[in-house]
Amino acid sequence: MREPRAADVYAMKAAKLELVSGLRARFSQGIVSNLVATSFLQGSVLVGNIIVARLLGSEEFGIYNMVLSTLMTVAGLAQFATGVTATRYVAQYRVNDKAKTARILVFLFKLSCASGIAGTVLVFLSSDWLALKVLDRPGVSNYLVVSAAYVLFSVISGYFTGALAGLEAYRSLAVVSPIQGLIHVALCGGGAWLWGGQGAVSALMLSAAFRWLLLSWILYKEADKLKIPWRSAKARNEQRLFGRFSVPATLAGLSSLPALWFSNIFLVQQVDGYREIGLYGAAFSLRSLIIIFPIIVNNVTTSFLNHQLGIGNDKQYRKLFKMNIFISASIALTGIMFVVLLGRWILGIFGADFQAGYAILVILALSTIPETLQIAIYQVIQSRGRMWLSLYGIAIPRDLSMVAMAYYLTRDHGASGLAVAYTGAWSIALLCTALIVWKLGFLGKIGESK
Fold first, then answer.
1. Pick from 448, 77, 447: which is nearest to 249 by CA?
2. Residue closest to 147 by CA, chosen among 202, 79, 68
3. Rounded distance between C-alpha atoms, residue 307 and residue 270, angstroms
4. pTM of the model as a whole
5. Residue 14 contacts by C-beta under 8 Å, 6 or more apart in sequence?
6. Which DSSP letter does residue 81 get?
7. pLDDT tens-digit map of 378-416
């Protein structure tokens, strides 16, 4: 067998360098575009919360937060993990098997519509019971009725976002995000100003509907651009994704979202509970400023890692994985310093009485360290498709510990106790994730799917 010529060797090296540099450019562009999109969306949520809080006051803002928490819990459960499932498999097959990608998109869309409608009906029918027996505010029933459709629009939008991440359509998301953000702020502010708390929660539903329309248009456009035959695709043969990936991921949500909700309920039931949950909600909004940037990096990394899995490039998979941990941890530490230094002043923007939540904010800021590291390391488990192991080994221990700690700590420490419970739960999740990754054998092929 003849040795390759020097020119051939040079050409192969040049092609490899171009492939790596192209990957880096796409990865950087994905992070920047996703950063722009998420900054506008999360920024609009923060600005909207500030406006609503100033218009309603801490107690009414607490009620607003509990209604939103209830809607998000139902939407999260009704999601059936279609967003993360779409990202996982669309990224893997979009190049090598376009027909399969189309079938996956159609199947997950139909599942999102069905589950979203079911979740909306559930909120509508149970609004009186939730308001009277759980939230202990009979008047909140009307809030839930007028905003019940938020569940449907949120579920489908979550699917669209996951599918677009799998298609690496981050630039398109960045282009429309300022429009979504402005609409959200205008609707929430206007609703609270004109009709109080009920107007604010109604605005949440309208904002979710507008986001659904925008994302559906982008997905159809991007799928056609990549020549994915989604218009003629049938959902058959892809139902196994439901049992292999979506079901355990959904059950993890069935564990985590109710855990957060019940933890909030424990706080609400204490003396001055709605004021405490208002302080906690404001602090949690600012904490989101820290965690959102590592989540952005990880969302982009998920798409790229699974794409490398699809083309069998284990070396680039490893590089992206390690780089993701370093970048995510650095961003989290920087964010913590920012919030600790300026947190009291920023809380004052919500209103003078919200500055009492500074200690809560510091504890929640520290929780971003274990959460960031856990999300980054978790990529190994997700790419191997070990979702059932993730459910039993990570989600359930994390969420049971959160509920237990919240039950005891909120009695004597109020919102600060809930913040400690949240931080402790994510510390347990990080430990469990690290043990599982070590057990799976990090030194083996990371991208190997079992």
1. 77
2. 202
3. 48
4. 0.66
5. none
6. T
7. 887 877 767 778 888 888 899 999 999 999 998 888 888
